[in-house]
Design a protein that fits this description.
This protein is mainly beta and about 170 residues long. It has two helices and twelve strands; from the N terminus they run E-H-H-E-E-E-E-E-E-E-E-E-E-E.
Length: about 170
């Protein structure tokens, strides 16, 4: 998992150490005014790599109402475009989670685990404000969209799904 902000003074240096497709996704997020994009899913092509762009308008929710998720074919680049704040949690997929819904073999490439409150203590937390991004690799379980201090907030969340195989050499 990688976490940062597109407005950080070291952003351009950080791009140089990432695989090209991830760097291109982050550069796209920084260089485009995504508040003007319509909500929904579309395909984008960044330097020859087809990616899915999701523009999501939503309200953050209580942690206990949100399921942990993973992906296997795609790397999730999540970006808080506006609104918030938002909290996201993450932890390593150690294979002990109870599967709630498995859609990995579909175009959605997502698996949801059941909420197990005894595991909440092991979750790392990220505080997201506009400009903040988190990159979740295939074995990073993550729970986005959590309400900060249990106060729901409107957010515009952008997710770019970068094919894992485009980053593996």
């Amino acid at each position: 998992m990688i976490y940062g902000n597109v407005n950080n003074k070291f952003f351009d240096i950080n791009l140089k150490i990432l695989p090209g497709p991830l760097a291109n996704a982050l550069k796209f997020l920084k260089d485009n005014d995504l508040t003007k994009y319509p909500a929904g899913n579309s395909e984008i092509n960044l330097n020859g790599v087809k990616m899915i762009l999701q523009v999501i308008d939503m309200k953050t929710n209580l942690r206990e109402n949100l399921r942990p998720e993973i992906h296997r074919k795609n790397i999730d680049v999540q970006f808080l475009c506006s609104g918030g704040p938002e909290v996201a949690t993450y932890y390593n997929d150690d294979g002990t989670g109870i599967i709630d819904e498995d859609l990995l073999s579909t175009q959605r490439d997502i698996l949801f685990y059941e909420n197990e409150p005894d595991k909440f203590i092991n979750e790392g937390k990220i505080f997201m404000t506009p400009g903040t991004f988190a990159i979740y690799f295939p074995y990073d379980v993550h729970v986005p969209g959590i309400a900060f201090k249990n106060i729901p907030a409107e957010i515009r969340k952008i997710v770019i799904k970068v094919p894992l195989d485009s980053c593996v050499k």
